[in-house]
Design goal:
single chain; mainly alpha
């Protein structure tokens, strides 16, 4: 009796439907990450400008400037983390799209999907 994975791997329509669903989910995730990154960058931009102004007005060692620099550093973390996550998720989206493209071009499902060592 074939395993569930073997059965699925032999049904082109089910595989394409699953891939299209994965693509839609991944596109939504990428959109959400792009939106979040835009918001994080806007916050960081404001905090950097504030830090620059404080540095010019109060000097580099004054408490206002030091606190502003810390705020800007804290705001840079979500930008860095979200950028890295966006890169990973965009790469995953590309993999899904490439699998659909290979299937559309007639590649055998086993080649388009690779062999997944999963149990039943």
């Amino acid at each position: 009796m074939p395993s569930y994975v073997d059965e699925l791997s032999e049904d082109r329509a089910r595989v394409v439907k699953a891939l299209n669903s994965l693509i839609e989910e991944q596109e939504e995730l990428v959109r959400d990450l792009n939106d979040a990154l835009t918001e994080y960058r806007e916050v960081l931009d404001r905090l950097i400008v504030r830090t620059m102004i404080y540095r010019n007005i109060f000097g580099a060692t004054q408490s206002h400037t030091v606190m502003a620099e810390k705020d800007a550093q804290d705001a840079s973390r979500p930008v860095t983390e979200t950028t890295a996550q966006l890169e990973r998720e965009t790469e995953v989206l590309g993999v899904y799209r490439e699998a659909v493209k290979q299937i559309d071009n007639g590649a055998p499902l086993s080649m388009a999907l690779g062999r997944f060592p999963m149990g039943a």
